[in-house]
From TrEMBL, chain A:
Residues 11-57 form the Siroheme decarboxylase NirL-like HTH domain. Belongs to the Ahb/Nir family. The keyword Lipid metabolism does not apply. It is an enzyme of class 4 (lyase). Keywords: Lyase. Pathway: Porphyrin-containing compound metabolism. Its EC number is 4.1.1.111. This is siroheme decarboxylase. PANTHER family: SIROHEME DECARBOXYLASE NIRL SUBUNIT, TRANSCRIPTIONAL REGULATOR, ASNC FAMILY. It comes from Azospira restricta. It catalyses: siroheme + 2 H(+) = 12,18-didecarboxysiroheme + 2 CO2.
From TrEMBL, chain B:
Belongs to the Ahb/Nir family. It comes from Azospira restricta. One of its GO terms (molecular function) is lyase activity. This is siroheme decarboxylase. Residues 74-150 form the Siroheme decarboxylase AsnC-like ligand binding domain. Its EC number is 4.1.1.111. It is an enzyme of class 4 (lyase).
Length: 163, 162
């Protein structure tokens, strides 16, 4: 097995071992190393490599939005001209109240929207005020829009790959 | 949403604000993070444990971008008739590939009311998961794979009163 294959295998085992969370013990990387039968130095080196490559987006706390005061969560969706979506998406994604922004395909005739921007706030009114700011920014490029508020979390486990 | 918000105090709030990313990779990372927060290592560990138990945090650890490992995340939706809600919800949530699932309602009454994220280890796994959901629910799955991600950063500061 090449060194690259060995690293990839260890990365995969690290994902499986940490996808539910990092051990809450003083030396978590040592605990993982012991569990996986490798050295703590290797665990830390692979985690650093995955962070650099972007396989790990970040390491830290994932708050429950509701618990930290963001009780309203609106998925705003927009129908904008395809040739403008890159520029408009970049401008909307840069707004400080937009946590995610994506260009996605339409599903006509049911779903005419090609730009999605997630907006969080303490109330529906606040989210709608922010959505109005997006509408203003889009101007004449907005041909149709909708806001879908989440009314219930049905599942939130995050990524789960088989061990 | 309908659940009651669990209580958090000023220290919890500082921990959440400070630790949404950048958790160190070193021998005693909790000690290093605790020092920056001006609290003891064991207090940080106990508070993280408690916030996970009370569901203030949904997770603590690395957040993976599976695309970089050959996998895929895809947002998808179903138009679920109200009378069939419980059955469809159980069928969808039973799949391990379903990472998140939200009920959503729009002012314009779009029939797409169940929105979930599929996370699979391979790109091919998405089509298989969609087939499985269609077979289990009898409903067509609308998939909205991202064509472009503009900017994604966790940037929500804690708002609850301390």
């Amino acid at each position: 097995m090449s060194a690259d294959d060995a690293s990839e295998q260890l990365d995969r085992r690290l994902i499986v071992a940490t996808q539910a969370g990092l051990p809450l013990v003083p030396r978590p990387y040592h605990a993982l190393a012991e569990q996986l039968g490798v050295s703590a130095g290797e665990v830390m080196a692979r985690l650093n490599a995955m962070l650099e490559r972007g396989t790990i987006r970040r390491i830290g706390a994932v708050p429950n939005h509701y618990a930290i005061g963001y009780t309203a969560n609106g998925m705003s969706v927009w129908d904008v001209p395809d040739e403008r979506v890159e520029e408009l998406g970049a401008r909307i994604g840069a707004l400080d109240f937009v946590t995610h922004a994506y260009h996605r395909p339409r599903a006509l005739p049911l779903w005419p929207y090609n730009l999605f921007a997630m907006v969080h706030g303490s109330s529906r009114e606040e989210v709608l005020t922010k959505v109005a700011q997006i509408r203003e920014l889009l101007g004449a490029d907005c041909r149709a829009s909708d806001v879908l508020f989440s009314t219930q979390i049905l599942k939130k486990t995050g990524l789960r790959i088989a061990g | 949403m309908r659940e009651a918000a669990p209580a958090i105090d000023a220290v919890d709030r500082r921990i959440i604000d400070a630790l949404q990313g950048g958790f160190p990779i070193c021998e005693r990372p909790y000690a290093a993070a605790a020092e920056a927060l001006g609290i003891a290592e064991d207090e940080l560990l106990a508070r993280l444990q408690s916030m996970l138990e009370r569901k203030v945090l949904t997770r603590f650890g690395p957040m993976f971008q599976i695309e970089r490992m050959g996998g895929a995340f895809v947002l998808a939706a179903l138009a679920v008739p109200e009378a069939d809600w419980a059955r469809v919800n159980d069928a969808v949530n039973a799949l391990p590939e379903v990472a998140h699932n939200y009920r959503r309602e729009s002012d314009l009454n779009t029939p797409l009311n169940m929105w979930f994220v599929l996370a699979t280890e391979t790109k091919e796994g998405i089509a298989a998961a969609i087939d499985e959901i269609e077979a289990a629910t009898g409903l067509p799955v609308y998939a909205f794979p991202k064509l472009k991600e503009f900017f994604v950063e966790m940037k929500l500061a804690v708002r609850s009163a301390a």
